[in-house]
Amino acid sequence: MPWWSWIVIWVAVTAVALLLYVLIGIRLFRKFMAVLGEVQSAGSRLSFAPSASAPAPQEIADQLPAVFLDPAVARLRYEDGKAERKEARRERRVERRRLRGQPRAWRDIPGL
Predict the structure, then answer these.
(1) Is 103 in contact with 97 (CB distance < 8 Å)?
(2) CA 5, CA 8: separation in Å to the nearest integer?
(3) Is the CB of residue 77 less than 8 Å from the CB of residue 69?
(4) How far is CA 60 from the centre of its chain?
(5) Taking the CB of residue 97, how many other CB atoms lie within 10 A of it?
(6) What integer pLDDT is reported at residue 42 of this predicted model?
(7) Are 82 and 68 spatial neighbours (Cβ–Cβ below 8 Å)?
(8) Does position 101 have pLDDT exceeding 70, yes or no?
(9) What does the alpha-carbon distance between residue 52 and residue 8 come to, in Å, rounded to a whole number?
(10) How far is CA 46 from the centre of its chain?
(11) Nearest 5°: phi and psi at 50?
């Protein structure tokens, strides 16, 4: 084989490789654009309308982090929440026992 045939072979191999890279790039670009279209349509289907009513100022004040509250207020809020959770547990326990036909415990009877 003459020396110039190697140059032709390598030029052809390089051209085919570049053509392959261009075709793969075009295919990836089209798939990427299709994914973006799906994301856009999913976003439009899942978008939520903003609520018409704004929260009351008291609701906003109740949602402040405890770091910014007065320690006495934070302690009172903690103890109130603790009592509410305890009462909710007691009510669930009484209802569960009532549904199962089990007797009530003495601690579940208020006022004793």
Answers:
(1) yes
(2) 5
(3) yes
(4) 23
(5) 14
(6) 86
(7) no
(8) yes
(9) 72
(10) 13
(11) -65, 145
